Every structure is written in C-alpha cells, then in structure tokens.
Amino acid sequence: MAMVKKIGLLTGGGDCPGLNAVIRAVVKAALKDYQMEVVGALDGYEGLVFPDKTMPLGYEQVKGILPRGGTILGSSNRANPFAMQIEKRGKTVTEDRSADAVKRCRELGIEALIIVGGDGTLKIAQELKDKFGMKVVGVPKTIDNDLSATDVTFGFDTAVVTATEAVDKLHSTAESHHRVMFVELMGREAGWIALHSGMAGGADVILIPEIPYYIDKLIAKIERREKYGSKFSIVVVAEGAKPVGGVESVIDHPDQPWQLPRLGGAAQRVADEVSKLSRKDCRVTVLGHIQRGGSPSPFDRNLGTRLGVAAVNLVAQGGFGRMVCLRSRNIESVPLEEAVGKQKLVDPFGEMVMAARAIGIDFCSASDARE
Ligand code: F6P
Fold first, then answer.
1. 94 CB under 6 A from ligand 1?
2. How does residue 371 score in pLDDT terms, banded at 50, 70 and 90?
3. pLDDT at residue 233 above 90?
4. CA distance readout (Å), 93 to 87, 249, 323
5. Share of the chain above pLDDT 90, in %
6. How is residue 297 annotated by DSSP?
7. What's the gap in Å between 258 CA and the centre of ligand 1?
8. CA distance 187 to 178
9. Residue 314 CA, ligand 1 centroid: distance in Å
10. Is the CB of 14 under 6 A from ligand 1?
11. Catalytic annotation present for 347
12. Rg (CA), the chain
C-alpha cells in the first residue's frame, strides 16, 4: 500500500481542553516519523465545504499550543456536510454538500482525514467513509465522557477539576449563610462530570440524568442534615437531570433534526421547587462553558498526545475506518461503527454510585431510603 503523503485534520463538535495537544501530536508525529504533510480544516466540517477554510500545519503553527485550551483550528457543532446550513438570499437553507467536501479534499491532495470529535462528529466521519470511501481515522473527544468505546475522553479530567473547585468554593459561603447551594454542571445524558466532581467536592446530593429524582427526598435530605447540625447543603445538578416521570429542562429546540436541544435551567428548576415547598434559602450557580475552557490538565494533555500519535500511526498502517481509544491504560483502536451511537452512561447501581451512597451522598431516587 502506498504511504499517505498528506493528512487532513479537523476538530468538530463542542470544544474541550486537550484538542490542541492532539493537533500538536498529529503534526509532530506525521512530520517526524512519516514525512507526511498535515492540512488543518477550520471550524470543523465547514473547513472541508467552504473555500479558503484550511491552513497548512507545521512545527511553527503548533509551537506553544500544548497548554492552551480550545482548538487552534476552531470547531463547530452545527456544521454537517450532509446537511449544511447555508445563507442564500437572506434565508438559511439546508443543503447536502458532502460531495463538495470530498472534492475539496481531492483538490488539496488530502488522502486521509483525522477527525477529532464526539459522537455526532464521528458519525459524520463514518458516513463519509461509507458513502465516499474516504479514508478516515477518528479521535474521541468530549468533556461529557460518554463514548462507550473508550475508557475516558480527554477534556473530562480538566472539566472535573474545574467543577470540583467550584463545589469546594461553594462550601464556605453556603455555611456562612446557612443556604442550600445548587451548582449546575454539564452532562446532557451522562452524569459523569456531576458524579465525579460531586464526590470529589463533598457534595451532599448529586442529581444526574441516569437517576431521576424525587423533590421530596431532596427536601428530606436537607432537613436531615439540619437536624444533625449541618445548616447548609450542596446539591450538584447535571444539566440533563430530570424528576421522576419528568423531562430535561430545555431552553432551545434545534432547527435541524440531527442537532440536540439546548439544555439549561435544571438547577434553577430544582431550587425553585425546594424554596417553594420548604422555604429554604437557595442559590444557584451555573458553571456552563467554564467547564470547557482553560488549560488542559496534565492527564488530558498526555491522553490527547497519545491519541494524536496513535491516529497518525493508524493512518500510516492503513487502519482506516477506525477510532483510537484508551482501554485499560493502553491506546488501542476500534472500528468506527462500534464506537458511535453507543453512549456510556452512569450505572445507577455501579460501584461509583454505591460508594457515593455509602458515604451518605443522596441521589434522591426511589432507592435512596429515608432515615
Ligand atoms: O460537549 C458536550 C456539551 O458539553 C454538553 O454537555 C452541553 O450540553 C453542550 O456541550 C453545550 O454545547 P454548546 O453550548 O456549545 O452547544
């Protein structure tokens, strides 16, 4: 098999700390080990569809980017070459521009694509492979850590550090004012950030999408704490948390069927109910995109670097249609079709939830017994 001479690289979906580590590793490994050129596509798949949205990537472009959050290539969670939203005569229309993406790659001499993204971005990569035979290699990314084919995604560790700091800081002010503090964290369908930072930050209650909550159990927990002398409580709420029999708190519905609704207001909703039913003094903090920003932790820098190098090695070996991943501390790869569409959710009866329960953290579910 002839060696690939030029790789295209893009980062798609919501950004996260560690993306620049991947970009740097891909560029360095490609140049040093294989003398392959690397072209970066800007703003996710937009870079493959629209003209003048690519840049050559060499040592100069990746200098000093390792500790930087975000992605020097830009990202987009709206760009999908199979359903591109395009402005035409003042109107937004949706067009299939996937053939343009393939044509552009050919024009640029790109023989293989390394696509860094979450489930949505990697599904598109798989479609490009299936429909056009594009040579693609996926690199998993999401702060939510909800991709089942990899033990952990880079970005998650940094997000947990940021969220834990926030939970830590809320303790003192909660205690001073005898308040119930709610902190809303990211996690649409998977409550990993809330679970990990809630446990690390010593939260009293953690509400996650996988374990629907009862509001009366939450009030009972706060009152129990007061009875035993703790006149404040810290409640960590994942953005996708929902009451038993209820739905997520949605603030905006997407205009494309493949886009996800924007979540928001989950913590405020719980706080409003608690103050209405119990007259407790409640305050809400929404951490939002702070969790996606900032310098990546050493763990995320190293995971991003290892995955970037592994992706280049896979290209060199002709291992297309696969995604690199971390399994039991080793970097491996899996077929893309095995990697996408399968979410890794928190097991409500798994070891971590049971450990949290054992130390008195309440999930306010049917299984959380009243004392
Ligand atoms: O990356 C996933 C995620 O962090 C979700 O938890 C969150 O709902 C979403 O991104 C928000 O993304 P954006 O505001 O960029 O659309």
1. no
2. very low
3. yes
4. 6, 28, 32
5. 92
6. P
7. 14
8. 28
9. 29
10. yes
11. no
12. 22
Residue spans of the domains in the chain: they are 6-154+296-339, 159-293+347-358
Question: Is residue 209 within 6 Å of ligand 1 at its C-beta?
Answer: no
pLDDT at position 257 is 74
Same fold, 6-154+296-339 and 159-293+347-358: yes
Active-site hit among 144, 204, 362, 368: 144
Q: How far is the CA of 32 from the centre of ligand 1 (A)?
A: 35
Look at 125-129, 177-181, 254-258, 338-342 and tell me which has the smallest mean pLDDT: 254-258
Q: CATH 3.40.50.460: does it fit domain 159-293+347-358?
A: yes
Which residue CA neighbors atom 8 of ligand 1 most closely? 188
Distances from the Cα of 87 to the Cα of 13, 81, 95, 123, angstroms: 21, 14, 10, 25
SS3 content of the chain, % helix, strand, coil (to 5): 40, 20, 40
Expressed in angstroms and rounded, the spacing between residue 14 Cα and the centre of ligand 1 is: 6
Class of domain 6-154+296-339: alpha beta
Average pLDDT of the segment spanning 245-274? 91
